[in-house]
Amino acid sequence: MIGIGLLGLGTVGTGVVEILEKRQEELKSLTGKEIRIKKILVKNINKKREIQIKENIITSDFEEILNDKDISIVVELTGDLEQSYKYIKSALNSGKNIVTANKAVVSKYFEELSSLAAEKNLAFLYEASVGGGIPILKPLKEELALNKITEVQGILNGTCNYILTKMFNEGLDYKEVLKIAQDMGYAEADPTADVEGHDTLRKLRILGTLALQGKIDENDILLEGISKITSFDIEQIKKMNSTVKLIGEVKGLDGGFTALVQPTIIKEDSYFANVNMAFNSVVFTGDNVGELKFYGSGAGKLPTANAVLGDVLDIINGTYRKGNPLGERKLRNLNTELKSEYYLRISLSNEDIFKSIEKISREVLYKNDNIAILTKEIEYLEIIELISSLGIDKDKYFIARVLK
Ligand code: HSE
Known about the structure:
6-stranded parallel sheet; Dihydrodipicolinate Reductase, domain 2; 3 domains; Rossmann fold; 11-stranded mixed sheet; alpha/beta; Alpha-Beta Plaits
């Protein structure tokens, strides 16, 4: 028997329990073993839940899981960053393999936890942390290991993609759509992480570090979220025969890399323009394989639970990449070499502000109660500096990169 300790019984945890119950037969034939959830850690034992769980397996005491010799795999699905770091570290130190969907913890403690697991000869797997149900990390770590990856691009947040799609297709208002995305179970407990781009940034940090085989840290990535987009912006973007997506991108250059997460305006007939709703997609460019595209459900209960259980199967069958998958290349951050055209909208009608903005403008799209321009090729941070020097509040502007 393989004993699993499940930490957290939220949306994804519930999905894991459901699939495990539904697929007992298949699991037995795939592994030759009986797989059982021995304990589930929850905050509130008495909370009403959408699934029936045997009372004797629910606990609010993590030590019970840690000290249970029959539990060899801990599946960490709590939302809390620091708490889950403590759980994962203690579980590895107690000889238990780890599966997690928590990109915040993987991103922040990637190097430490990867080397601890390797040192202990244990698995630390996190397929569900990037791209929800799409198998991306295993192919990247295994099938693509002989490639020099030069570029990773992705739509990596289901909530943002859902919001942008609905705003674009149905003319809905930002707040209205965010609420629906939350109800659908796509958003993080605190949706700020989604809409401000932190969730995409963490996923990109994980992907970029694995792909380039050198550390790309969270603060190496230029970040702009989607929370300030309005229907006015959508109208302007439509007039450009384009759409807008939150895109994460890492490029490998000689001796270094560039990395950004920014709303990006792309032509309506381009590949990413057709990745809609809560779907995610990642495109890798490798020197042997060329361009490789992964597409599928980026969030939601069953897709994410499926990715978690794929990792569990790999641990039981020993079919995962052993050792530390992180490389040791020292990479320089070359973001200052990144220049692009940007769309900039400022919700103010002020002649002084217009005059300053005009200096970086290639084309004025609108000048009335809002000012909207397309900039010349410029560094993103130059725009931010200009905006802040003009004393414009964060909620009064929206910036998106324009890809030709
Ligand atoms: N909140 C995340 C998203 C969940 O919307 O993509 C999946 O990582």
